Amino acid sequence: MIIRQSENEIILDEVKCLDLALTLDCGQAFRWEEQEDGSWSGVAFGKFLNIRKDGERFILKTTLEDFESVWRNYFDLDRDYAAICERLRQDPLVASAMEEYYGIRILNQDPWEALVSFIISQQNNIKRIKGIIKRICRACGNEICDGWYSFPDAATLSALSVEDFEAMGAGYRGKYIKRLADLVASGEIDLNSIKKMSLGDAKAALLNIYGVGIKVANCALLFGFQFVECFPVDVWMKRVLEYYPNGLPECFKGYEGIAQQYLFHWARNNL
DNA sequence: GTCCAGGCATGCA
DNA sequence: TGCATGCATGGA
Predict the structure, then answer these.
(1) Does at least one atom of strand B sit less than 7 Å from the CB of A264?
(2) Rounded-to-integer distance, Cα A98 and Cα A212, Å
(3) How far is the CA of A241 from the C1' of C3 (A)?
(4) Which bases along strand C come within 7 Å of a protein CB atom?
(5) What is the pTM of this model?
(6) Is any atom of strand B within 7 angstroms of residue A94's beta carbon?
(7) Which of A130, A132, A139, A208 has its CA 20 to 30 A from that of A152?
(8) Distance CA A162, CA A198 (A)
(9) pLDDT (tens digit, 9 = 90+) per residue, A248-265?
């Protein structure tokens, strides 16, 4: 990867395996919107970003400082996806998925945002998940630039009531969000320390949270806590698992989450 | 009208 | 441990 700074933009050359639409709109993050010019805009870690592909290069409307402190890790740019995908391709189903859809990356999102988002995701569809999160951000996030709001922190959400979340469309998940916000805001749970735990300890800590089961825990660990070996199983992945009666193939080992995201996308389009 | 969506808590055996 | 049931909401 070659990084250059040009006026108010960062230009990236030689980035392998990054398809913006696949990565930003594949159900792992819920706050990215495609613009009329084909670029993508969104907010993460309290920062706004517009990113587009121009030929073989990517152009990010951001500063070098924000690129280094947020977006470099957010897009997982220091991981060798080409090599990993080459290995995952040993599995024929992943290989056929990659022929259709190449360029999915696992985004390293904020743990708090990922956890709340995937609590909302349960027994829900992606369009509705996006709507609920957008209303929460509009209601109590900070407006970073016109119309784009940060994801509110735990203290802010803790000030809301269960009924407030229900009014924003969260349904029965409102009580889960409220209780989690209280736990994090009070310091009873420290998500950043969970991020430093072993996978087993981190998973146990998340499963202890009201409203967090094995699926939500695995999604949060994969998308928000950088455990790329997690393999979330939802209703779509249950259908995919019928193709693996003997368990997951050896070539997934260590990168189950990346394989999972290809299979998830394949399932939603083909099953 | 019914069914479904990136499921979980609860009660019961 | 495993299984049945209720749960909010909106689009198909």
Answers:
(1) yes
(2) 31
(3) 21
(4) 7-11
(5) 0.97
(6) no
(7) A208
(8) 32
(9) 999 999 999 999 999 999
Is A50 a residue whose pLDDT tops 90? yes
Residue environment code for A127-163, b if the CB has 16+ CB neighbours within 10 A, otherwise e: eebbbbbbebbebbbeeeeeebbbbbbbebbbebebe
Which whole-number Å values give the CA distances from A118 to A44, A104, A121, A177, in the listed order? 16, 19, 5, 10
A59 touches strand B (CB under 7 A): no
Residue (of A113, A189, A190) closest to A150 by Cα position: A113
Backbone angles phi, psi at A41, to 5 degrees: -120, 145
A54 forms bridges with which residues in the sheet? A57
A157-188: pLDDT as tens digits: 999 999 999 999 999 999 999 999 999 999 99
Q: Strand B closer than 7 Å to the CB of A233?
A: yes
Question: How far, in Å, are A92, A229, A235 from residue A242 at the CA level?
Answer: 14, 20, 12
